[in-house]
Amino acid sequence: MNRGTEQRSSIPVSLRIAAGSLAVSIAVLAIKFGAYLLTGSVALYSDAMESIINVLTAAAAIVAIRSAARPPDAEHPYGHDKAEYLSAVMVGTLIVVAGLAILWEAYGAVLAPKPIDAPWTGVAVNAMATVINAVWSRVLLRQGRKHRSAALVADGKHLLADVITSLGVVVGVAVAVLTGIDVLDAAIAVLVALHVLRSGWDVIRENASGLLDESVPAEELARIREVISRDAGEAIEIHDLRTRHAGRTIFIDFHLVVPGSMSVEQSHEICDRLEAALQKAFDGAVVMIHVEPEHEAKQASAIV
């Protein structure tokens, strides 16, 4: 039996958050480039470059969420939820490209270091942008996990990484100015680039699992087994439980073994009860149940 419902109520919320993220990213980009233009610091340039990626990731999140919101069709009968994972992998790739661009700029600055102009003004301006990013990254991570949006979570993680690197840049530029060692500015940019490369790789690795139909986390799987065991009623056992996740949607399928004398209507009632319980526990879950007679029981691997 194929039993599932479409959960789309969180889509408008996710879209509004993604649109807000784009606006915040553009504002932060303008502030950080202003700090770079004031100072000519390659470290502040590297921080501004990462903000360009913030804008791109926010735009990609909007496209991905809109794509994932499309209902199933003839060519995509299971929906479009994986669009968010694809978007997140693309975002990770863009982050890696940004890291390489920063490394290239830093290399030139190492070969020809130069003093920083108006350093304290630039640091203050950059710090203001960092505070904005810190607040917004928390919003994205909290809302992304609440609405099971891989795109929002990826955007939030990248912003959080941006906050950490920005703090390092502010401290590093201050040290370079106080010590008069101009090459420290370029050295900081190199460290920022390495951090950006690592965060880009992490985003790619984490979201590639969604594209490969990875099972739900262990704690969610344990909860699924608990719900099934509690509501299986007169069933003999449940075996061959499989799960996967795609964006906000969890797919659950298993075999339900019932007594041979049980009517179709009775087995159907058990399926309805299990489906309702799982969808209550996991909002929007798509549940597939295959009913089997008792001689198909596999007690060694059974849940009930």
Automatic annotation (TrEMBL):
Keywords: Cell membrane, Membrane, Transmembrane, Transmembrane helix, Transport. Its main location: membrane. The keyword Cell membrane applies. The keyword Cell inner membrane does not apply. One of its GO terms (cellular component) is plasma membrane. InterPro entries: Cation_efflux (IPR002524), Cation_efflux_CTD (IPR027470), Cation_efflux_CTD_sf (IPR036837), Cation_efflux_TM (IPR058533), Cation_efflux_TMD_sf (IPR027469), CDF_Transporter (IPR050291). Gene3D superfamilies: Cation efflux protein transmembrane domain (1.20.1510.10), Cation efflux protein, cytoplasmic domain (3.30.70.1350). One of its GO terms (molecular function) is ferrous iron transmembrane transporter activity. The chain crosses the membrane at residues 21-45, 51-69, 85-107, 119-139, 159-177. Residues 21-212 form the Cation efflux protein transmembrane domain. It is a multi-pass membrane protein. Residues 217-294 form the Cation efflux protein cytoplasmic domain. It is found in: Cell membrane. It comes from the Bacteria. GO terms for biological process: intracellular zinc ion homeostasis. NCBIfam families: CDF. Belongs to the cation diffusion facilitator (CDF) transporter (TC 2.A.4) family. This is Protein p34.
